[in-house]
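Exercise (ungraded).
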Amino acid sequence: MNAPLPQAVADRDAALRMTGISKRFGPVQALCEVTFHTRAGSVHALVGENGAGKSTLMKILAGVYQPDSGSIEIHGKPQILANPAQAIEAGVSMIYQELDLAEHLTVAENIFLGAEPQGPLPFTVSHHQMAAQTRRLAEQYNFRIPPDAKVEDLSTGDCQIVEILKSLRRNASIIVMDEPTSSLSERETVRLFEVVRQLRKRGLSIIYISHRLEEIVELADEVSVLRDGQLVHSESITQLDIPKIVHHMVGRELTDFFPQRKANIGDVILEVAGLSSEAGVRDVAFQIRRGEIVGMAGLVGAGRTEIARAIFGVDARTSGRIVLEGRELDVTCPADAIASGIALLTEDRKRTGLCLQLPCSWNITLPNLAQIGMKSLICPAQEHRIAAEAGARMAVKWAGPEAPTDSLSGGNQQKLLIARWLLAHSTFMIFDEPTRGIDVGAKAEVYGLLNRLAEQGKALLFISSELPELFGIADRILVMRRGKLVGNLVTKQTTPEEVMHLAAVEEN
Amino acid sequence: MSKFVRQLLPFATLAIIVAALAALEPDTFLTTENFLNVLSRSSVNGIIAMGMTAVIISGGIDLSVGSMLALAGMVGAGVMLKAGGPDAGAAAMVLGTLVGIGAGFLCGLLNGVLITKLKLPPFIVTLGTMSAFRGLSYIINNSKMYDVPTYTFLGQSHLFGVPVSVLILALVVLFGFFVLRYTPLGRYTYAIGSNREAAFHAGVNVDRNLIAIYSMMGLFVGLAAMIQASRTISAQPTAGISLELDIIAAVVIGGASLAGGRGTVVGTIVGTLLISFLRNGCTLLGISTNIQLVVIGAIIIGAVALDQIARSKAEAS
Amino acid sequence: MSKFVRQLLPFATLAIIVAALAALEPDTFLTTENFLNVLSRSSVNGIIAMGMTAVIISGGIDLSVGSMLALAGMVGAGVMLKAGGPDAGAAAMVLGTLVGIGAGFLCGLLNGVLITKLKLPPFIVTLGTMSAFRGLSYIINNSKMYDVPTYTFLGQSHLFGVPVSVLILALVVLFGFFVLRYTPLGRYTYAIGSNREAAFHAGVNVDRNLIAIYSMMGLFVGLAAMIQASRTISAQPTAGISLELDIIAAVVIGGASLAGGRGTVVGTIVGTLLISFLRNGCTLLGISTNIQLVVIGAIIIGAVALDQIARSKAEAS
Amino acid sequence: RKGGADGSRKIGVIPKETVSVYWEGVRQGALKAGEEEGFDILWNGPEVETDREKQLQIIEDMIAQKVAGIVLAPSDRKALVPVVEKVHERGIPCVIVDSGVDTDKILSYMATDNYKGGVLAAQRMGEILGGKGKVIIVRWTPNSGSTDARLAGFTETLAKESPGIEIVDAQYPSPPTTDKARDVTDDMLTRNPAIDGIFACNATTAGGALTALRNADQGQKRIKMIGFDAWPMVVDGLEKGDLDSLIIQNPFKMGYEGVKAIVRHQKGQTVPKEVDTGVELITQDRLKDPKVRELLDSQI
Ligand SMILES: Nc1ncnc2c1ncn2[C@@H]1O[C@H](COP(=O)(O)OP(=O)(O)OP(=O)(O)O)[C@@H](O)[C@H]1O
Ligand SMILES: Nc1ncnc2c1ncn2[C@@H]1O[C@H](COP(=O)(O)OP(=O)(O)OP(=O)(O)O)[C@@H](O)[C@H]1O
Ligand SMILES: [Mg+2]
Ligand SMILES: [Mg+2]
C-alpha cells in the first residue's frame, strides 16, 4: 500500500529519514511500516483523518514513544531516540497538539525548561539570563510576551506563542508543529506563518500538521498523507490541491461537503436580550427561529464561548433575559438549562465533555436519566438498549455501549457527545466549535447532522472560528468582538471579508 | 476477559489467604466462631469503608473518619446516659443511638458543605475537621470516656446465631451496592470523580451530590460509632486514632482509584476482609504484630501494583 | 500587588498570633528562653516539612514520614549502642548519627523507586511503606526502645547560646530555599508538579528527579530522627505516630497546593512555626489541649480558605 | 502431655502496649515462669495504649487459639469487661495485672497499689520541699486506671499532709509520647517560673520531664523531681542527681506471678484473689543496695 516516494523528494538534502516505523497500542496498530522523509529548508505537511497516526509518528520522532520497529536517521546519522531529552539533543523540537506548559512557572522558565542557563554559582540557574534571552528571542521573531508572567495568567493564544518560542529556543534543525493554529487568532496565525517561512529560509526542516487544508496549501512544500497508520501518499504541493488531498485522506471523493438543506424556518424559538455576564459578555441581543442555523463568528477571545456559557448557566449573568418558546428562563446552572430544553456541546470535549474512564453508555445517559424514566432508579438493561440505539443513530464506531469512552478516537468521542444531546430532546442546541480538531470526513458528517437537526425544527447556534464552514452551513452569521455583538448578517448577503472586517476592526 | 480477571484480583487474594490459613491452622482458624469474630470486628471498618468508597469514587477523601467515630460515639453515649443514666433502658438506648448516628451525619454534612461551598480540597477540609472533631470529642466529657454498661445490643448480641453487627454490615453493604449501581446519586458519584467539570456541564448538581456523599459517609460513621460503643460498652474520645488510613487502604486494595471515578462496593468489602483475615491469621499463626505491619504494607503496594499491571496487560491484549 | 498580599498571608497570621500572645502573656511568652524552646521543638517538624515541601510541590505526598522517623532513629541509635555501648563516645555517636541519616535516605530512596518504577501513586506507596517502616522499627529491637543516655549534642546542647537543633533547622531551611529556588532540581520540582508531561517532553528526567526528591525527603527525616533521639536521649519505635498529618498541615498552611506546582520553603517554615507557637501559646494561656485541637483544625481550613479567596480576588482584579 | 482443658501449653500475656521498658519487665517475668513450668508464652499487645479495640481483638484471637490461660493488663477498666467475661465463659483462667477491670470473673488481680505509690511520692515531696512550695504534675492520658490512682494518691496526700505545697499546673502530653511530654513540661516550666517540684506519673512522662528539666535547670538542681517507674534514662538521672527519687513497682513479679497463678490453678491449687506486687520509693543513696539493684535490673 505504501506509495513509492518520488525520488526527488526522498534524496535531495534529506534532513530526516524515518524508515519502516510501526507502533502498536494494545489492539490498535497506530502505525504500520511508515517511511517518511523530509528535506532541509522546506515545510512538509502531514495530513490524515483523526486517528490516522500523525501525532504518534511525530511523538516517536520526539522520543516520547518507542517504535516497535523501524529506524530513524537525522542528517544522515542513525539515531535512537529513547526519550525526549535525546530527541532534543539530536535537533528535533516539537510543539505538541495539546498545550504542554508548566502553568505555575513563568514564560521564561517554561521556555528554558530542561536547559537552564547556569548562574554565577555551580548548580544554579540564572533567572536574569533566562528573562533576557527570552526577551531577545521574542523580539527576534516579533512576538510580544512578558518573560516574567506566570503561564497560568496567559490566554490560550499566548500559551501557544510560548510553545512556539520554546521550540525555537532549542536551535533545532527539525521542528514539528502538531496543529499549532487551533488556538491562535488570525493575526497570530499570520505571524506564525511568517516565522515558519523565515525558518524555512534558514534551512530548517518543518513538519506541519493541520486539519485546516487551506493552511496546508498556503504554507507547505510537500504533503504526506497518513491513512489508518500507513503512509498512502507523498508529493510536492505543486501537484496537489484540496480535493486531491481530501481524496488521499479519506480514500474517496467527498462530494456534498456542505449538504443542501431545505430551509424551513418558522417562528422565533429563542430570544436573548441585553445579556451580560461576569465573564465579559456585554449587552448581547439576538433571536433564533425554528429550523434556523445561526452561525457565530469572531476572533479567539471575542466572547463567543462566554455567550454559550451564560445561556447555559455556567457563568453568572449580570443582566439580560433569555426567552425560550415564549417562556422567560431563570437559568442558574446547566441542570436548569437542560431541564428547560437547552443543550450545549462544549468546545473542549476532554475537559468539559466526557467522563473518559466511564462506559460510553453512561456518558450518553448522564444528563438524560430523568428524561428516559430513570430519575430514581437505573435499569441497566434499558440503559444499554437506549445507549446502543443512540450510538447507532450517530454511527459511533465502538466495541459496544459498555466500552470505556477513552477507547474511542477523537471524532467518535465527538459523535458520542452529539448522541447524548440528541437524546435530551432539546429545542435549542448550541454547538461550540463542534469540528475543532476533527478530520474532513467527520466534519462532513457533523454538517449533515446539523442540517438534519434543523430540518427537525430545532433552533441551532453554531459557533466556529472557520469562516468557510459558517458560510457553508449557517443561515445567518452573528459577529462578536470583545464581548459585544457587532454584526447580524444574512449569510447570502455578506462576504467573508465583511465578517472578518467586523470581527477584527478596532473600535475607535 | 482480562478486565474480568483484573476485577477478580482482590477476591483471588482473599481466597488464597483464607485457604492458606485454613490449611495451616485448621483447628483454630476454620471455626464458625473465629469467622464470626473476624466478621464482627470488620463491621466497624467495613461500614465506614462503604462510605469511604463513595467518597473516593467521587475523587475526594475523608481523613476525619477516625475523629468522627470518636465524636459521634461520645455524643450518642452522652445522650444515652443523660436520658437513661448508667442503667439506660431501651428507650434511652434507641435515642442515644439515633443521636449518635445523627451526630455523624452532621459531621459529614459539615465536611461536605465546607468542601463545596468554600471550594476547598477534601484533603484539607477533612485534615482540619479531623483535628477539630478529635478536640470536640475530648471536650464533651472533659477527656473522659462514657460508660454504657447496658448498651450491648448492637455490638454484642446475636440474631439467628449471627452477631447483630455483622447483620448490620451486610445491610449496609447491600445498601451501598444498590446506591452506587442503581441510583442516579451513584451514577453521578462516578461521573463527578471521573470528570467533575464534564458532570457539571451535563447538568449534574455537583455540590448537592457531593454534600450527599459526605453526609452519607458521616451517617455510616455514626452507625459504626454506635456499634463500636456497644462492642466496648463505652464511648472513648480516643477511638479511631489512625483509622482513616486503614479504611483508605481497604478501599484502595479493593480496586478504587484515589484519582476518582473507579471503585466498587464489593471490592471494598473484600479489601476490608482481606486485612482483617490477614491480621487474624497472623495472630493465630503466632506471627507478631510487627511483622503483620510489614506484610500489610507490602500487600497494599502489591495489590495496587498488580492491578496496574493487570490493567496495562488488559489494554495490550 | 494582590498576589503579593496573598503570599504574605501566612506571615501575617503568624505575626498576629505572636503579637497577641506577647500582649496576653508578656512575662512568660516574650522570653528568649521560650522562643528558643519553641524553635527547638519545631526543629524536628521543620526539617521534615522542608522535605515534604519539595514532595508536595512535585505533586506527590509522603505519608510514611512518621514511621520513617521511628525507623531511622531506631537504626541510628541501635548502631550507636552496638558500636559504643550505653556510654557511647563521640566516635560511636557520629557513626550512629550518620547511619541513622543514611537509613532515612534509603527509606526515601525506596519510596522514590517504587513510585517511579512501578508507576504507582505516591499516596499508595507511602501508605504501604508507612505500615512497613513502622513494623520494621518495632522488629529491630523487639518492640522496645533504645536508650542513648550520652547522645545529647544534637538535641540538648547549645552553640553561641542557640540550641544546636535550631541551628541545624536554620541550615536546612537555607539549603531548601537554595535548592528550590536556584537549582535545576528545584525548577524541575515545580515543573513536574505543575505538568509532568510537559516536563518530560522538555527533556527533564522526571523519574530521576522524583527519586532525588523522595531521597532528600528521607535524608531530612533521618536527620530529624537523630535530633529527636537526642532530644529524648532515646529512640522510640512509636515515634512520629500521626506526624505525617502535622507536617502536611504545616506545608499546606504555608501556601503549598496538594495538586502540585505551588509552595515555598519560607511559607512552610512559617506554617510550622505557626502551629508550634499556637500550641505553646495555648499551653501558656492555660487553654486545654482539647481546645487547641479544635483551634488548629479551624486554622488549617481557614488558612487555605483565605488563600483561596485571596487568589480569586487576585484573578478578578 | 498434661496441660489445659485440651492440653494447651500456651499462655497468652497481653500488656497495655509493647514499647515501654516497663512492660518488658512483665514479659521477662512471664518468660521466666513459662520456662520454669514448661509453657510457651504468647506475648502480644497493641503498640499504643490508647488502642483498646486492638487489645480486645488480641484477646479474642487468644481465645481462638485455645490458650491455657491469659495474663492481661487491661488498658481500660470498662471497655474490656465483655471480653474478659467471655474468656471466663470459655473456662480460660484470666489473671489481671497492673490495672483493674470492672468484673469479678477473673482468677486473680495482681497489681501495684497505685494509690499508695502516689502517697509515697507526696510524702517525699513534702519532706524535700520542707512542706511548702509550688509543684507541677506531668499527667498521663485521662482514663488510665493506674495513673489516675497515682495522681489521686499524690494530690490527696499533699492536701492533707503538706497544705503549704501548691499544685500550680497539671498537663498531659498528646499524643502520649516522651517527646510531647518534654514539650508540655517545657511549657509548664515557662508558664510557672518559680517551680520547686515536679511529679511525673509514669516512665514516659518522667523521661520527657527529665530532659525538659535538664534544659531549664542547666545543672543547678534546684527543682526537685519525683518520677514513677524505672527506665534506664531516668535511673541514670537519679544516679546523677537530676532526679530526687523514683517510685518503683515490680512488673517482673506481675508477669512471673501471673503465669504461675495460671499454672497453679490448673494443678488445682488455690490462687489468692488479690496480690499486691509492691511499690517502693528509691532515692539516690538506696541505689547501692543490692536488693534495689536487683529489682531495677529485672525491669531495665
Ligand atoms: N497513548 C496511547 N495509548 C493507546 N492508544 C493510542 C495512544 N496514542 C494514540 N493511540 C491510538 O493510536 C491511533 C493514532 O493516534 P494519533 O494520535 O497518532 O492520531 P492523529 O493522526 O494524531 O489524530 P488527530 O488528528 O485526531 O490528532 C489512534 O487510534 C489512537 O487512539
Ligand atoms: N483559562 C483561561 N484563563 C484566562 N483567560 C482565559 C481563559 N480562557 C479564556 N480566557 C480569556 O477569556 C476571553 C474569551 O475566551 P474564549 O477564547 O473562550 O472566547 P471565544 O470567543 O469563545 O473564542 P474561541 O472559542 O474561539 O476560543 C479571552 O480574553 C481569553 O483570553
Ligand atoms: Mg494528533
Ligand atoms: Mg470558544
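Further reading is listed at the end of the chapter. For now, observe: The domain at 268-341+426-508 of chain A is CATH 3.40.50.300 (Rossmann fold). Residues A 25, 28, 30, 48, 50-56, 97, 409-410 surround adenosine-5'-triphosphate (ligand 1) (CB under 6 Å).
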